Batch of 2 targets.
Target 1
Amino acid sequence: MADRLLTFSIFRYNPITPEIPPRMQEYQLEETMGMSLFIALNRLREELDPSLMFDFVCRAAICGSCAMLINGRPGLACKTLTQDMPDRITVMPLPVFKLVGDLSVDTGVWFRHLNVRTEAWIHTDKVFNPEAIEERMDNPTAQAIYDAERCIECGCCIGACATANMRADFMGAAFLNRIARFMIDPRDERPMAQYFDVVGTDEGVFGCIGLMACDDLCPMEIPLQGQLAFVRRKMAQMALKCARCK
Amino acid sequence: MNWSDAHISDVLVIGAGLAGERVAIEAAMNGHSVTILSLVPPRRSHSTAAQGGMQAALGNVAQGYGDNPDIHFEDTVKGSDWGCDQEVARIFCEQAPVAVRQLSQWGVPWSRVVPGKRTLPDGTDIEDLQEKAGLIAQRQFGGTAKWRTCFAADGTGHVLQYAMDSVVVKLGVTVHDRCEAISLIHDGETCFGAVTMDLRTGEIRPYLAKATVIATGGYGRIYGTSTNAVINEGTGMAIAQDTGVVPLGNMEAVQFHPTGIVPANILVTEGCRGDGGYLLDKNLHRFMPDYEPVKQEIASRDVVSRWMLHHIRQGFGVDSPYGPHLWLDIRHLGPEHICTDLREVHTICQNFLGIDCVEALIPVRPTQHYSMGGVRTNKNGDVYGLKSLFAAGEAACWDLHGFNRLGGNSLAETIVAGMVVGERVAEFAKEQSLVFPFSLVQDAMAAQAQRLADLRSRKNGTEDAFVLRHRMEDTLLNNVGIFRTAEALQEAVTTLQGLYEQAQNVRLRSSGLGPNPELLAALHLPGMLRLALCISYGALQRTESRGSHYREDYPRRDDDNWLKRTLAYWKPGAPMPDLQYEPVNITELPPGSRGYGEMPIDKGE
């Protein structure tokens, strides 16, 4: 692998210079031991083109900032090692999200909007008592919540989703998972019906057409299809119960 | 400047990590309009990267029974090597349990106590009692007498930040992400807000507020090789010091974490050692008990890092193309434990080393990790020197940590300081009315516009921002690390002074238009160099060893002369910081033995 000359073909467009149309630009770089796209893109910027825009924060696959289309597949650039890639690497910004410039997209506004829309917080009437000890929870429940809470809002499941690419109002796997997380949390006092008002629609669980790219590409390996099935199952159970009581 | 561009709120919080968001929540719950500025969406803040946990004396687990804030206090003061403010440490230890429990109500999935007997890796048998079932679980971290660190599997920082941000979203607090404060607006007595750059467009705007809070985290990136996120450039500290009237406290106190992986410099949590992991040398010998017979791998971070580097210097490091390292061995903890409570470690090893740490050793070495120093505040969070300005979290020198922070005390600090400072800010903003001197804001805006225009138009400059930056990183890494000497520190000061001069002569290779990364690099560089000089010069002047500050030429702690805190001011136009000192607040525990790190280090040529 040493001595490989890598060719990077990178999407370029800066909204502040709209007169320069979007284009692919090529750069070459000698591969080094253990090179990741984090290392490569920073070297390209520092050595060849200091105007190149991209986002990294933690560079350890924890923060979710650096999702990009890498040779056509959404993934985290920081943990993509060049040794696993061919000589030619194409990098494009994640679709669906608004472009900030080059490889940088605006995930923050999108996710905040969806967090508001799905009311992704604990709903409770309990007032915090600083004198009291904590309410108990059994550890398997805590772990199950944690497993869903591991989502890092990187947007890979959104960029990879055919529905999200076609319809701007689809909430995508990230938020169906988020809803599932609150449904299993005993601290959240929302009645089931309230969740379904939010997700029991075409913008929610019924928008999914089952291509499963979200599940394949989640960098945290969250079982997103399983979470979607869980929400649908809960809905069906509730519908049956209601039908019976009528 | 157009006045309609001004963004006005009661409280302006710079930084959306845990400390900033907790302050914002407190202010918002008290009815204030709050704006949070952040370089990145809040959930990408570096707080999320904290894997290990949060210390709070709950006494829920077998090895923590009988714990209380007094013991937490004693651990914290000893950990700080008596450098911390004891009044602050007391407030902190009393409030930490409240903070943990409130977070539970906000949705944090803390790991919980599972009753039953088990045997620890060292052979000790313990039993978690039925009566504690389902309470918040705690694990062991370095330098503590009790198991006290509350955790959520392997991703405590992540879940804390998500829960915290969910409350910010619920309260409807305004967050402007991709927005950077590039200077504070002040008249030498009062702070009125900040001039900010929109990182989507490159435009600048004034943000005005009754109270401004700096919660921008640490500066690890000035070391280049650091566990810190790439956004941790110390910009908040730099703009505060740049006012000329605000001091930075104890900048020479820099923490190196024992287990950064080699070569990626990504942290693997102290939980690895707390849960029973070992450090091994090239002969696979477990060397820490040789140096620290009692605490072994879980002495405080400064002590473990020092012994690791010492052991490497003695020739026991494992050679690699990236320099010598040591091994972290967690194999004996078993796959089940590794794949749940240490899953992130497992994933990091897989992603960045290509190894399975259930079966393989992890290459580690001490790596820059945390800044105990920062914007000096009093116990309520009021910044020294400027009214209406506050600071919290790693960006602040509240001074909970003195010269060494205990693992698990940083997440806890962000939240407890967020509560305490948030209360103070809320109260302050209630008493204050919104008044802004027009010309002051206009001048502040004009000065920043000019600064940017100068950078963009300086076509006869000779220096490259990235090149200067790498020289700064190398200087700090080589001369201002774990082992320090007068000679190396003096060399660092001289080099950094030269770089600071050169930084005034940077020329951009690109247009610098919009949110241009080269422009930002050039913009940050002088502030970063000022911080680097404060660290190096402060370290040079402090002729003793205390906590993480270890002088080979002055290897002992010197309470007679140095039981004091460094305050580094930077007067406008000065080439060097102006160092002053203040006494350390000792209210309960007089200086004594830490109980670890006492064996003299033999230099061994």
Note: Chain A touches chain B through 63 residues (CB under 8 Å).
Target 2
Amino acid sequence: MYDSIIIGAGMSGLAAGIRAAYYDQKVCVLERHYTIGGLNSFYRLRGRNYDVGLHAVTNFTPPGAKKGPFARLLRQLRMTWDDFGLSPQLMSSISFPGIELQFDNNIDLLRSEVSREFPSQIDNFDRLIESLIDYDDLEQKHFETSTRERLEQLISDPLLIEMILCPIMWYGNPRERDMDWGQFCIMFRSLFLEGFARPFDGVRLILKKLVRKFRELGGELKLRTGVSKIKVENGRAIGVILDSGEELTGLNILSSAGAVETFNLCETEENIHAHTTGQLSFVEAISTLDKYPRELGHNKTIVFYNDSEKFHWERPTDDFCDIRTGVICTPNNYCYDEKDGDLPDGVMRVTALADYARWRNLDKVFYPKTKNNWFEQIQASAIRFVPDYRPHVIDTDMFTPHTIHRFTWHENGAVYGATRKWLDGTTAIKNLFLCGTDQGFVGIIGSIVSGISMANQHLLVRS
Amino acid sequence: MTPAEIRAAVIDILETIAPDEDLTNLDDTKEFREQMELDSMDFLDIVMELRKRYRVQVPEEDYENLVSMGSTVSYLEPKMAGIPAE
């Protein structure tokens, strides 16, 4: 009998596991995949390391900062700032045709860019910053109001609204077209008022530190151990049945599998939330270069681009991908420590919107062909906003919504999960709780905080 | 444990929870939150650490007693009197 059974060894599940284990619970984390990470994972291919998910760790605050989610999670996990090995970004941009807003980890740069490009809007932009909800004041009823309506009340230039929405929706909006105001406030803070950073060794460094901590505290991590059912008796979760048929019992179950995905595991009629399944998924075209991007004149960390004045955030309905907008991430362009030097290769990663169903339905012959075709198209779209790096490509890889679903089992390969969030983590089933993407925080720091706060509220306080 | 030993035990817990805080000049009569960056999660950790280290239970309705060092020590005194100092 476990005190806590946690489903999923991603950032949130591992963080929740650390909290439970630290306070002497008998706890296991169950992961169906053969490796850790979930939506933020990593792999090795032809001798090179790749990150999945991580472009940047958002919510970056410098050492010694006492406020904000990053400082909070360090305290809660009894870890140090150095454990995360974060190096801050150089500079990023929001690039639309003929207009660009640059930003870095100090809001002053973005403010000065807004006041140069939109002189009549700078006061409105400041009012927007003042009106953001604080992390601790997020409540379900305010959370779900329309961001577009709020922005239209605050800012009178529609182009500036689109330019602000572009990076924020890209980094954490599960809904199409509009966004929950609560989610917008979280993301605005994490991107612009805090900032971007990356560990030199990528996301694997953070995950390995979390696993080590969890194991040192006596937690059990079981890989290749999928949950096929959550056992429910009289409206109460009492344990899980594994893919192998084995049964485990637990006092509490915390699931990071996703809301709809978790309800589908329950032997009940609780499929009422199926219509909230997220629709947004991505492809990513990753190129390894024989030069560093800065040698080609590219010094930005992340470029959020959109090729018209209107930003379209929706699932492509008539093709495999929508390449009007995208994100170009250059992992080389962070302020790494001198002792680390440079990454071994130059890397350009380009992410575009994609339709899960179309990718899933391809057969074995057409899947690789379609990937090659879209790889070319995505690169061609991206080089309108960065120097043409195509002659320097020496290796490539690409993931699609099908890949995301295959390794994370998230419905539709929806990276940001369901279109509504379960902020308090409770479900209609007693002793069954949610953490991770569908609880409401996204990104690496966000998901870790989600695991911590749900473990505190549901696994620890009541026990 | 004497009140002085209880105070030392609470200081040790605070150092674990918030290693970046300088506690040398902590004023026992002032609220913790006026002197340190402690949020609700950190407060919960004081309770949890007391339970983990000394098996002392602090029910939710008593949390208000943990606002300052002075009130924490007086609240814990009867609960920890029988615990030997480390």
Note: The longest strand of chain A covers residues 247-255.
